[in-house]
């Protein structure tokens, strides 16, 4: 009996814990039409990422040192990586084109944004866009620099807390009848 009570208590806590979290849906071209497609309305929407996005910049530096009359080239490698985790909230900044826009997931820096647009192969879902895809890596611009998005980041989409309210209002009244005068 003690085990049953413990299990029921744990189930109740789990239900209460998950009932407060938003239920996320993909942001699609249809969703964009439903919110009247104005920039003011887009700025009011809280976006989230569906998948982790990992972008990196690879810079190889060569430094020449003169040692005992010889030039020694030392190769150093520096990789700058930015990781934006699944579920990270983001905000609309501006339109890149009519149906493509910049979303920032970084507090306080409007230069750090990613571009998203509708993908017809995924039902118009807004996905991460790159200027060029090569060998499962996409070239993206972030913080005014060129980064590469890892292959799995290509599946990242914008999600929204879509509260579908199916409310039907019925105004009813009963006719009292009418008599001849």
Q: What is this structure's SSE topology?
A:
Elements: H1 2-19, E1 24-26, H2 29-34, H3 39-42, E2 47-49, E3 53-67, E4 70-84, E5 89-97, E6 100-104, E7 114-119, E8 125-128, E9 132-134, E10 137-142, E11 145-149, E12 158-161
Number of domains: 1
**Low-pLDDT regions:** 15-19
Range of helix content: 10-25%
Round the mean pLDDT to the nearest integer and report it.
Answer: 78
What does this structure look like?
The chain is an alpha+beta fold and 181 residues long. It has one domain. It is 15% helix and 43% strand. The protein has a 7-stranded antiparallel beta sheet with strand order 1-12-2-5-6-7-8, with no helix packed on it. A 5-stranded antiparallel beta sheet has the order 4-3-11-10-9, with no helix packed on it.
Quick tags:
181 residues; alpha+beta; seven-stranded antiparallel beta sheet; five-stranded antiparallel beta sheet; elongated
Task: Give a quick rundown of the structure.
Helices cover 15% and strands 43% of the residues. A hairpin with a 2-residue loop joins β10 and β11. It has helices spanning 2-19, 29-34, 39-42; strands at residues 24-26, 47-49, 53-67, 70-84, 89-97, 100-104, 114-119, 125-128, 132-134, 137-142, 145-149, 158-161.
């Amino acid at each position: 009996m003690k085990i049953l009570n413990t299990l029921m208590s744990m189930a109740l806590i789990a239900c209460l814990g998950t009932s407060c979290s938003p239920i996320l849906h993909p942001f699609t071209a249809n969703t964009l039409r439903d919110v009247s497609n104005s920039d003011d309305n887009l700025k009011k929407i809280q976006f989230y990422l569906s998948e982790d996005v990992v972008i990196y910049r690879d810079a190889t530096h060569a430094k020449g040192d003169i040692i005992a009359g010889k030039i020694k080239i030392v190769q150093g490698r520096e990789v700058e990586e930015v990781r934006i985790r699944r579920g990270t909230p983001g905000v609309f900044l501006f339109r890149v084109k009519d149906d493509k826009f910049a979303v920032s997931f970084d507090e306080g820096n409007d230069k750090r944004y990613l571009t998203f647009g509708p993908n017809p192969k995924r039902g118009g879902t807004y996905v991460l866009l790159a200027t060029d895809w090569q060998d499962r890596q996409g070239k993206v611009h972030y913080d005014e620099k060129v980064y590469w998005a890892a292959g799995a980041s290509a599946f990242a989409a914008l999600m929204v807390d879509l509260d579908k309210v199916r409310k039907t209002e019925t105004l009813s009244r009963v006719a009292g009848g009418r008599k001849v005068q």
